[in-house]
Write a structure and sequence with these properties.
Shape: globular
Strand content: 5-15%
Distance between the termini: 29 Å
Structural class: alpha/beta
Helix content: 40-55%
Radius of gyration: 19 Å
Length: 292
């Protein structure tokens, strides 16, 4: 298999088989991310892709799902992506769902009709690393698009009948813009129909511009209590009929379907966490996250 390490894949979709058709990230400029630093964006040849599909087919010819790598293979234009999907269906004739992640900007080069065709070939659900619906925050972290782009491109997915996940990155605006980040993100999400809203928690990894800025006093990160308070503001304003997923180690109990039906319970839990949780204990759990 042609796989570039380290391998990043969504744990929420079937994690085997994996098929890498691109390497790296087309953008690779987000201020909080080091996942693909030092890895240039590239595209595998059809010959390499077919070799990997043949290997998968030899081991599991009846698989019905596959996860496509790497960071944002959705960036490939329709005339490059569709032939790959056709080959997947040729080698794996029982294929039902082709999962992949992408950036909002990856949808600009595709029409609704092209997206419909990709859905027919198996792309029925994708994940978008949106992070925020607040323009100030999006500019601050160098995402490369604005709220209007999120609305325009996600509506194309809805018209094409493709389900999509959206992420909210808790804490990425720092203390300076925390409330606006939470409220404006919820406002944008509310104008769309995401299948799942996923909440991640900012970690300042070594080598990221945000950590360097924090060390220079140019970025004031939220503490654990601030993270919980920001998340509560986001939940208070979120009105999507969607699944709700938290990646936080200490808040996995908030995850589940039918967000609106559980919203009041989620807010009660957050109130309890804000009022009673020991910041030291919460921080210690986060420090141990890699070992859990």
């Amino acid at each position: 298999m042609h796989l570039t390490r380290p391998i990043y894949r969504s744990p929420y979709w079937p994690t085997w088989p994996l098929l890498e058709i691109t390497t790296g990230c087309t953008h690779n400029k987000c201020e909080f991310c080091t996942m693909y630093k030092g890895i240039r964006f590239g595209v595998h040849s059809m010959e390499e892709i077919e070799q990997d599909l043949a290997e998968i087919a030899a081991k599991a010819p009846n698989v019905i799902t596959i996860q496509i790598l790497s960071a944002n293979p959705l960036a490939l234009p329709f005339n490059k992506l569709a032939p790959v999907f056709e080959k997947i269906n040729e080698y794996l004739p029982k294929m039902e769902d082709i999962y992949l992640a992408g950036r909002v900007t990856d949808l600009r080069n595709k029409t609704v009709d092209e997206l419909r065709r990709l859905r027919e070939l198996g792309m029925r659900e994708i994940s978008l690393g949106v992070e925020s619906g607040d323009d100030w925050t999006l500019d601050r972290i160098h995402k490369g698009y604005h709220a209007a782009d999120i609305l325009e491109q996600c509506r194309k997915l809805e018209e094409a009948g493709i389900l999509y996940w959206m992420t909210f990155l808790n804490g990425v605006a720092g203390k300076e813009h925390s409330r606006q980040h939470a409220i404006n993100s919820a406002k944008v999400f509310n104008r769309l129909k995401p299948a799942v809203v996923g909440v991640g928690s900012l970690t300042l990894f070594p080598g990221t511009p945000l950590l360097e800025q924090a060390e220079r006093g140019e970025f004031d990160p939220l503490d654990e209590q601030g993270m919980l308070e920001e998340l509560k503001v986001f939940v208070e304003h979120l009105e999507c009929d969607c699944g709700f997923l938290t990646h936080h180690t200490v808040m996995s109990h908030l995850t589940g379907p039918e967000f609106l039906g559980r919203k009041e319970r989620i807010l009660r839990i957050l109130d309890q966490d804000i009022d009673y949780a020991s910041r030291a204990d919460v921080s210690k759990i986060r420090e141990l996250k890699d070992f859990l």
